[in-house]
User: Fold this.
Amino acid sequence: MAGVTEQEILDALAKVTEPESGKDIVSAGLVKGLQIKDGHIGFSIEVDPKRGAELEPMRKLAEEVVYDIKGVISATVVLTAEKAQGGGAGAPGDNAPGGPPPGGPAPKIGTPDLLPGVKSIVAVASGKGGVGKSTTAVNLALGLAAAGHKIGLMDADIYGPSMPRMMGISGQPSSSDGKNLDPMENYGIKVMSMGFMVEEDTPMIWRGPMVQSALEQMLRDVNWGELDVLIVDMPPGTGDAQLTMAQRVPLTGAIIVSTPQDIALLDARRGLNMFRKVDVPVLGLIENMSYFTCPHCGERSEIFSHGGARAEADKLGMDFLGEIPLHMDIRKTSDSGRPIVVSDPDSEYAKAYRAIADKTWDNIQQTIAQQAAKAPKIVVQ
Ligand code: ADP
Assistant:
């Protein structure tokens, strides 16, 4: 990366105006804690906490102008109220608190110290929505649990949380220690989702820093306990929000779910590139809605020229984890809260998910071993 300079960033930010004073945010002295690290840029804009919501477009614009600079991989901008006149910490729900502290890009959350019992965290991502990412995440989690592993499922798809419905869980989580929330549980899997906090049909409007704190709370302030794998259902797409999540959660690796036509459209490749940019190993690709088996005659139709994903995975140096056909039973079961891996474990579809889960488990273990070999040894005397 040919180094983005501080000057380039300040020049870009000089185009962003603080609406009340009419001054640009650089000369008004509002830009704080600028940090540049290998193309990842972070800083805060100091604002009056009462004006958090009103200034969200300004925050967004600041993020956009920085993101547009050549060489910038990610831009994380938070509104802070640390030194705002009056010294108040800001009302909860404002943009300022809850976000990372001023002084640059937020540190990774959910580090091993914070989640000591969680052995690995795996993101399930897709280049775009509607490819069956959540359905795959759920059945993969259940496939791993069926093999005897301790599994958690975190719904980071906060814009359209579907885990409560797919996992057949309703109600709200409670707290047994009065401090952290206990995850909800069904089919032997611990689940956390924003969907437990709000009605499914309530449109959720999230501002950038709120996304971060929601994610942070779901990781850090939940009693996940001992887990072999925490599966994170990512929001669809490869925008800045996803990238920031990929950076801030200490992911062991990521899995990309794609449909055959999505492969052709290169959306999956975008997903792969996103994780590679932030040094998250991609554990493999799953092709969903791969082919169609006629429920009447059993004939297999390869609607979207099946097989492309395997070839594409090979070409991109990614493992191919397996393929799942398009089938009504998969849709019906996951949409009604009885995913096929638990409701019809002997079906060919459940078997396909379990085979993918086994392969995923092997890749996770390999990746953990590789990461351990690379990590510096700490000797405690
Ligand atoms: P995403 O998370 O990518 O937006 P979902 O998992 O919500 O996608 O899936 C979108 C819709 O497609 C859901 O109704 C789901 O039941 C259905 N679906 C997903 N995978 C399959 C499949 N292999 N066969 C049939 N329907 C599927």
